[in-house]
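Q: Could you fold this chain for me?
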Amino acid sequence: MRSILTIAKREFAVFFDSLIGYVLLVAFLGISGFFTWLYGNTIFIMNQANLQVFFAVAYWTLFFFIPAITMRTLAEEMKTGTIELLLTKAVSENQLILGKYLSCMMLIAVALVATLPYYFTIEMLGDADKGAVFGGYIGLFLLSSAYVAIGIFASSLTNNQIVAFLISLFVGLFFHLLFEIISANFTGNLGKILNYFSASQHFESLGRGVIDSRDIVFFVSLTALGLYLAQWSVMKRIRFS
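A: Sure. Below is the predicted structure, expressed as structure tokens.
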């Protein structure tokens, strides 16, 4: 556990030492704030005390931002050769992956906490649905967890950060959008199975304030699968390098 926390702290510091963290945080807050408060069907026009607009915007914003966060996690280590050095310092592949994952989730947590003023503003405008707000934030965090794991796996497949970014987007797109679209063309059990793999279905359920164990299991399972595949990929590349 100590090694995991050490790696996480180091990686978290790198985000802000290289300005990546600041740029992504400002961009995330700027885009989500603009579409939530100023553009289109804003909260003021809708005259509703909820954060559904923000959650809908953040659902897509995080989809693009998370691959940008994760693309360097392992690709850069592979390119510079520092991954071999790390793994010879009594750090296992599992500890390395979990440390990288934790650092990304810390950055995501900072970004989500920074949006809490949105909620307090809503509370000033009217009595907000606290259950929906709580469920929406839980949904964003679980969604981010799954996409971070996918992004780390993508980063473990290549030495090129741009390629890792594109792989992460491609894989994530299936869960984010395509499974839902494909499932609409099928009926019966196949349609239900494909629809289950749609992240939007689980996220929307949580956003309504319905904390269903099936939604949590989906995101946790996707996270575990992504991290396992990342560990397997690192072990395979190190062994045959």
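A (continued): The chain has a mean pLDDT of 87.
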